[in-house]
Amino acid sequence: MQTITITRPDDWHLHLRDGAALTFVLPHTARQFARAIVMPNLKPPVTTVELATAYRQRILAALPNGMKFQPLMTLYLTDNTAPDEIRKAKDSGFIHGVKLYPAGATTNSDAGVTNLKHCWKTLEVMQQVGMPLLIHGEVTDSAIDLFDREKAFIDQQLIPLRAAFPELRVVFEHITTKDAADYVRSDTSKKLGATITAHHLLYNRNAIFLGGVRPHYYCLPVLKREKHRLALVEAATSGDARFFLGTDSAPHAKGAKETACGCAGCYTALHALELYAEAFDAAGKLDKLEAFASFHGPDFYRLPRNTEHVTLKRETWKLPDELPFMDTTIIPLRAGEVLQWKLRGN
Ligand code: NCD
Ligand code: ZN
User: Fold this and answer.
1) Which residue of the set 10, 179, 240, 248 is catalytic?
2) What is the pTM (predicted TM-score) of this model?
3) Would the CB of 109 count as within 6 Å of ligand 1?
4) Which atom of ligand 1 is nearest to the CA of 136?
5) pLDDT in tens, 82-91
6) Which of residues 66 and 346 earns the better pLDDT score?
7) Whose CA is nearest to atom 5 of ligand 1?
8) What is the spatial distance between Cα 276 and Cα 269, in angstroms, rounded to a whole number?
9) Coil, strand or helix: which one is 142?
């Protein structure tokens, strides 16, 4: 296959940031995707409908003339999110999920949830009104090995949570382990979905240490062993409707990554579809890309599928070493290296 034309995809997990950073990254995403679930981990976080409304306006205002893109907003769950805020969010029509960050789990998660028990009434209302819970699924206990935190989250938090709220729709975000893929697959409730990033399909944890420490391959949840990568490829390319595309593209300026204590996050907004195409191609499953990228997400979120199309061509091209980003630069994942697929200009 030399070209592949698919229904225009959406990104079901994206960090757009705000202010000047937003204006640099938004055109990359809007070129690739029709819509995206926009993460709320700004500083300060997007905790109310009022803040989400204003953030949505800033995103739309930052969109270059002639580009189309629909931001699907989310709220940031805290210990104090009022049940009424969920009702308001549902009524807004543009808030499509509420994000659970265990406090301290990742970038800008300090205001996150310290104990799910504090959120019980709020979760009840989410279940009742049909507002999905989007989960960063890692425990924060420093006694638990970094590589085991997703599995521990499933056992300690996710299973009890879903037993308590069986009708709550949940997206297990950016899954990184065979354990998570197996857990999602074993579920028969039709209330559980999972996003998978391109980098977790293409790389295992060796990429972070190849010939020296490589901060641009460091994200959370961190890349895992090869057996986990293989399980994610198998899940993403299986045609199973519970798995869908979420880049977790997370821009950090070059200096914030290349430092003694670098930020977590890989930047893939520029070339996400090319990376996914490469992963599906390597698995011999290009025919399954469209459903994963363009059908399963809207079906889970109960939104219409897109009607436009995009075409990817098998063509090698070199990714830039860095891209302009505010008054500095950003290093995309696989910077300066060759990609195997190219999205046709649009
Ligand atoms: C994200 C970010 O930078 O906001 N970083 C990351 O490594 N993925 C936060 C997140 O999704 O965990
Ligand atoms: Zn993320």
Assistant:
1) 248
2) 0.98
3) no
4) 12
5) 999 999 999 9
6) 66
7) 265
8) 12
9) coil
